[in-house]
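User: Continuing from earlier, I have the next pair ready.

Assistant: Great, send them over.

User: Here they are, in order.

Assistant: Folding the first of the pair now:
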Amino acid sequence: MAKGPLDGVKVLEFAGLGPAPFSCMLLSDLGAEVLRIDRKHMNEKVVNTEPRFDITSRNRRSAAFDLKRPEAVEACLKLMESADAVIEGFRPGVMERLGLGPEVALARNPRIVYGRMTGWGQHGPIAHSAGHDINYIALSGALAAIGPKEHPVVPLNLIGDYGGGSLYLTFGVLAGIIHARATGNGQVVDAAISDGVASLMSVMYGMYAAGIWTLDRKDNLLDGGRPSYGVYECADGKWISIASSETPFYKKLRELADLEDDPEFDLRSDKTHWPSLREKLAAKFKTKTRDEWVALMEGTDVCFAPVLDMSEAPFHRHNLARGTFVEVEGVVQPAPAPSVSRTPAAIQSPPPEIGAHTDTALRDWGLADADIAGLRAAQAI
């Protein structure tokens, strides 16, 4: 049984990769009922050998269709009639060619919110070009700002696919559902990763316009330029992070790291001293192991945390206390977030096998047994 503040919201997901499935995981974590339309003959190269490892597919039921068959297309349109939202992540024009585009969907269900996840958006000079996360963040100004002075650094695809992509798609779809429930009018959400990443960069663009952010990497307050905002290696080869930006936090850093007697640390706003201060901090942090620095600084107002890897993070005492990670079918994974008080979220079910729920899900979504039998006879499911 669904749990969470989105209980009662129905989403039809057309299976894809990356940010669209992650958006559907977020919605279903918070209680939305998501039915995933999988391809009947899925390319095995993009499928995990064990579904349980495909974490972003959790909470769904799966119905497998051959969308090249008109009977399958008509069945999907029937499903759209009872859905609050559709989510798809194909290149522009693919859903239209299948006969499942937004115009057709809105004609069948004027209240539906049609969420479209792409890298470049539905229109624009390169909208139909292939791309990946790194390309989208490159065009948005984000990639040029990340890394050492010598060259940009390839980050995890959190910034583009999931930050500028999934989160903005989810936000847009939920906003559309609120509007549809108030007015009866659905609409199309054109979520482009390149647009979302540009939006994420709003603070930096503001500081750049104000003349307090330079175009040089590692030369600013939040890019590792300021010595008191960065990562440092410890005596055991492990790392810690400090973000002692404000004066009280910086004072606490100097106190706990025994730096109060060095007058150069009074000059932290003078960029000419940043290289020297960084060297001094690097030398200081190499005098103790990571665990020793944790014992000294964790929980204080230094703004400190150890740099944990994925084998360590689930077992940190703070994450354990908050239930930040859970285990499902032997797979340790992030729990639903954010935490809500009255209607707490929960993982409803593990990731499904493709087509595992075709008959039962279609029946629950309003198709008659005769319709389902007809789809099977036509080899559409």
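And the other member of the pair:
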Amino acid sequence: MSRNRENTRDVSGSAAGLMPNSPLVLVMAVATGAAVANLWYAQPLLDTLGHFFGVSNGTAGLIVTLTQLGYAAGLAFLVPLGDLLERRRLIVAITLGTVLSLVLAALAPGVGVFLFASLAIGVTSVVAQVLVPLAAHLAAEEQRGRVVGRVMAGLLLGILLARTASGYVSDAFGWRAVFWAAAGLMLVQATVLWRMLPRSRGESRLAYGPLLLSVLHLFRDEPLLRRRAVYGTLGMASFSALWTALTFLLANPPYNYSDGVIGLFGLLGVAGALCAMVVGRLHDKGGNRAATGVSLALIAVAFAVMGLFRNHLAAIIAGVVLLDLGQQGEHILNQSMIYQIRPEARSRMTTAYMTCFFAGGVIGSALAASLYGVAGWTGVAWLGGGFGGLAFLYWLTGSAEAK
């Protein structure tokens, strides 16, 4: 038994200087992207799912809302365990839970079961947020921003490819095939992660209850965390509002696009994924505040463009690109900053920040789905632009020291 413990320390220690070009960073980036992709498979299918289950756009929009609500719950109750338990075992166990949730979605006979499966998919997909702080923990200090940026680039590519792959698989084989394929991918991923990840036990010695309570203490004690959580919440609300309502806009006149074509719009966010690596370097060089302000301003500008020229495809494309650049830029900067505060509590810092982040997603998707039926795309543009504008105004109130 003592030999086992010694071996665990050796493996973790050898990875403590993880560099951006390490094969393990690539594995973690791919795994993070594949895990978070589960949140977005349903988005380009909302119109199809609504017709299949015979429900309204508002009810179909609940699929996204419940998935994000489940993700927020997983962030609150599962991710903090990364500071307490052995992380490799935790990551693989949660991934297997995702497999079961996706199978349930694939078999769903009605909208009620599908909504429950969506909630479960959200809860278990938080494995992505156990992997990101693990990457930060293993990274060399002077390379942390770049390592986090590369892992997050994988996450963002997962989001983009999820929408595109989902639309095409649905067109070719039906929507159920999307969830069967995702379940198979997660099963393969669980095997790879079990073989590749080093053992790494959390440093906290708190019991589960006090561990969860300590997340609230982090909010109380860390003003930088609170500020970055506000940026993240408002940015994600804008992002989620766009991607929930965009499906309805593109599936109806004047566009009338199929699931496959709607899914292609996810590829426009490649600029956002590339931005993740650039802002990681900016973080390492100390350019956080200015880059955050520019990122938040881009979110507001994106919705202004799409709101004013809703019937022009070029304007929609430009708006999606600008939004992804702004949202992903501020999100990477937020995470890179908060991981500097309490190295021994990175999983709980992730919980504190990402719970707010996905609460913003729930608010944005729920309001967008409801507002689209009342005020159409114009109302959604005002909603998303308003969230971005509020975030930028709040950024103006911060000093350079407050980042």
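Worth noting for the second one:
The chain has a mean pLDDT of 84. The CA atoms of residues 163 and 263 lie 5 Å apart.
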